[in-house]
Write a structure and sequence with these properties.
Elements (H helix, E strand, L loop, with lengths): L3 E3 L8 H9 L9 E5 L4 H10 L3 E4 L3 H18 L1
Keywords: Phosphoprotein
InterPro entries: CheY-like_superfamily, Sig_transdc_resp-reg_receiver
Protein name: Two-component system, chemotaxis family, response regulator CheY
Length: 80
């Protein structure tokens, strides 16, 4: 697995709880993760980083999201 992308607002488990569960598993701790969401407040961005996401992007900005994916994948390769 090269990259984890998750929404924040999901019906059963929100993305913040999801990424915490993922980060608690050693084999997934090194994989970059992006929150892709409609939430755009400074509080939600900060919470995403606190919970374990490497990046928080807004769904409606597809160009920025794709740039973020490329950057996360490029940075991952630098550290492997």
């Amino acid at each position: 697995m090269d990259l984890i992308i998750s929404d924040i607002e999901m019906p059963v488990m929100d993305g913040w709880r999801f990424i915490q569960a993922v980060r608690n598993q050693k084999k997934y701790q090194h994989i970059p993760a992006m929150a892709l969401t409609s939430l755009n407040s400074s509080e939600s961005i900060e919470k995403s980083k606190e919970m374990g996401f490497d990046m928080h992007e807004i769904k409606i900005d597809k160009d920025r999201m794709l740039t973020g994916v490329k950057n996360l994948l490029h940075n991952k390769r630098q550290y492997l």
